Amino acid sequence: MGSLLNKLGITKPDDDDSSNNKPAKQAPPPAPKASAPRSSGGSLLNKLGITKPDDPSPAAAPVDEDSKPTPKASSSKKAVVSDDSDKTPTLKVSGGSNNFYKALNKALADNSTDGFDYLKFRDALHSMEKRIPDEEARFEAASASAKTMKVSPDDLVDSAQNFLKVASSEQAKFNKAVNSLMDDNAEKQDELKKVVKDLADLQDKKASLEKEIADSKSKAVQQKSDFDDAYDQVTGEIKQDISKIKKYLIN
Hints:
The chain has helices spanning 2-7, 16-21, 35-48, 74-82, 99-110, 118-127, 135-148, 153-250. By secondary structure, the chain is mainly alpha-helical. The protein starts with a helix and ends with a helix.
């Protein structure tokens, strides 16, 4: 019994030796909580960038700012080169290089959709010409690409028909402009005919005036000649009479 009491740190009142000479045994202090060492150890591990397996959110290791790798400039450039989503589709036609072709092609490109339409299908065909010489195989390969975007051959035909409508609309606009120009030319042609007629009338008038001038000149010359003859004859006779008067009457 005493041994048990001693183990529990309890002494008898009448035990003088135990109460005066020996200190009562104390109960052992409670064991430290497991969280205390984990807290200090965890802090150290976190500082070292090391985490325990049961830690769901590992801390990132400290990184020296000077040791950070410099991002490669070519990465963004590579992304731009490989991205063809903004590429404007074009209708490549043999011999298509004049300004009207360019204007018509621009009208078609402006009506291209964001999805895989006929123009993009035709671009795909054109890009495969060297790799796939066979035309049928080329169409099948381009169609396979279209199917991955849920575009069927019927969809491609419908898209191509829409582009034909766009081209037809551009043709109507062009014909209207040409007809307007032709109408202007017709008006100018009528004006030109009037000018030509006026010029012809002026030419006739010019010829008439030239004849009148020539006739008048000829008449004037003839009249002067006749006058001169008459003058000479009259003055000649007068001079002869003066001479005869002096001869016969004054002397």
